[in-house]
Design a protein that fits this description.
Helix content: 25-40%
Number of helices: 6
Strand content: 15-25%
CATH architecture of one domain: Alpha-Beta Complex
CATH superfamily of one domain: Ribosomal protein L13
Number of strands: 5
Distance between the termini: 46 Å
Shape: globular
CATH topology of one domain: Ribosomal Protein L13p, Chain: A
Strand order of the largest sheet: 1-2-5
Order of helices and strands: EHEHEEHHHEH
CATH class of one domain: Alpha Beta
Structural class: alpha/beta
Largest sheet: 3 strands, parallel
Radius of gyration: 18 Å
Length: about 150
């Protein structure tokens, strides 16, 4: 009887691709889900939970992302410095005006594993409010791949 074994790719065996995603008109939560899946590599047949098999993701036009319902005025982000009485709160509308890149980073961060691997995945996410980005060389000679 032949024994079959499951193949687990080692670190460095999977190619590190770069993906360009245009956020214009996309829903924030669905965009964050697609980015989290791409960072983890769950859309690949070589997905392995304990190895970094995901891609680098560049998101452009984050300032034009869409949210539904009353989230612009009701969704609240919190930040605390660790000192007593220093809890700061921000609503989504203000965050999208001042730091639209942080909105997606925080949404994706909540969907990634809470360990070293998750922190490494988050470092592979590059978010830009406008159309321009400095990663054209990494994206290579590929046509402009707008996913989603």
């Amino acid at each position: 009887m032949k024994r079959t074994s499951t193949y687990f790719p080692k670190t460095g065996e999977t190619p590190q691709n770069w993906r360009l995603i245009d956020a214009t008109g996309q829903s924030l939560g669905r965009l964050a889900r697609d980015v989290a899946v791409a960072l983890q590599g769950k859309d690949r047949p070589t997905y392995t939970p304990h190895v970094l098999t995901g891609d680098h993701v560049v998101v452009v036009n984050m300032g034009q992302v869409r949210v539904t319902g009353h989230k612009l005025l009701q969704k609240t982000y919190y930040r605390h410095s660790g000192y007593v009485g220093n809890l700061k709160s921000f609503i989504l509308r203000d965050m999208l005006e001042s730091h639209p890149d942080r909105v997606l980073q925080l949404a994706v961060k909540g969907m990634l594993p809470r360990n070293k691997l998750g922190r490494e995945m988050l470092k592979r996410l590059k978010v830009y409010a406008g159309d321009s980005h400095p990663h054209q060389a990494q994206l290579g000679q590929l046509p402009d791949r707008n996913e989603g």
